[in-house]
Amino acid sequence: MNTYKCGACEDPLSDGAHCTVCNRELHFHCAGITETGYRKLGDRKHTWRCSKCKISASNQPPVSPRPESESAILLEIRALAEKLAPLDFLKEEITVLRAEFTDLRLSLSETNKELKDFNAKIRDMEARLKHVEKVQEQVDILQTRLDKLEDENNTKEQWTRMNNIEIKGIPQSNHENLFDIVGKIGTKIAYPVSKAQINFINRVPTREKDRAKPIIVSFCNRYVKEDFIAAARLLSKAAPLTTGQIGLAGNQRIYVNDHLTLQNKALLSKTKKAAAETDFRYVWVKHSKVHARKDDTSPAIVLKSEKDLIKIK
């Protein structure tokens, strides 16, 4: 930035007003104008005059000498005029500042209104949030009660199936004799059962459309049911039980298991999946309960619900 000297006080000057009459660069205060007032002149800067040049231009033509007292008064008036010259620009600047202040006050008023509206919305949201939190608490309580009721219902339903076994893999025919089929299975597994030991026997629908309906056998005695399943599993360890071994067509594998509820079947499936992911070697059902074991030396884990799956992870 270029540096000049003030034409009035001769102090260094980097920025100031330019008088178009005396062609001097002046400090704003030496020129009799504020910086803001000078910058607002716009095109009027091309005709602007400093206070000294204004006073010189307003002087009257020379007149006859006056008494010394009048000259002193005139000097005082001129000095006062020099001091008062910036007032015109101060008045203009005050007008501009007043307009800016009015705009600022209006802006603040609008901002305050927006803040009030915003605070009202925040209070409304807080009230709604508290309501939602209360509702959520009630939902959590109801969900806990529902889970408990479902577990209790599943336990009761499983209890009604304690004497039942489920046999899968037997092809279905129109004139089949289910008692005869169960008897042949009992003979093959070295645990023969009579018709008198069976409460009822029937095929039930399945979700797997392409497979034969499983056979549900309800024994009159739960211990007979447990021994029947144990004998079938013992045989399966040596060689799988198949339809051909009991005189039926094909060589399809036969499965003999506890008659589980839908909830427990889902738990068994998820347990097998979790066990495969965590290298658990054994998953089985005993007394209609799902069991798992890491290896031959680890303790058995009983899983009663999906929450217990964390035990094998």
Task: Indicate the proportion of strand residues.
Answer: 5-15%
Output the radius of gyration. 53 Å
Task: Report the helical percentage.
Answer: 40-55%
Strand order of the largest sheet: 6-7-5-8
Specify the number of helices: 8
For the record, the CATH class of the largest domain is Alpha Beta
Distance between the termini: 75 Å
Along the chain, the helix and strand elements come as: EEEEHHHHHEHEEHEHEEE
Can you tell me the CATH architecture of the largest domain? 2-Layer Sandwich
| Poorly predicted tracts of residues | 62-66
Structural class by secondary-structure content: alpha+beta
Annotated CATH topology of the largest domain: Alpha-Beta Plaits
Count of discrete domains: 3
Protein name: FP protein C-terminal domain-containing protein
Keywords: Coiled coil
Coiled coil: 108-152
Domain FP protein C-terminal: 261-313
Please describe what this structure looks like.
- Helix content is 49%, strand content 13%.
- The chain has 313 residues and is of the alpha+beta class.
- It folds into 3 domains: 4-58 and 68-84, 2-Layer Sandwich (Herpes Virus-1), CATH 3.30.40.10; 163-258, 2-Layer Sandwich (Alpha-Beta Plaits); 260-313.
- It has a 4-stranded antiparallel sheet, covered by helices on one side. A 3-stranded antiparallel sheet has the order 9-10-11, covered by helices on one side.
- The longest helix has 75 residues, at 86-160.
- Mean pLDDT is 88; it is low at 62-66.
- It comes from Mythimna separata (Oriental armyworm).
- Residues 261-313 form the FP protein C-terminal domain.
- Residues 108-152 form a coiled coil.
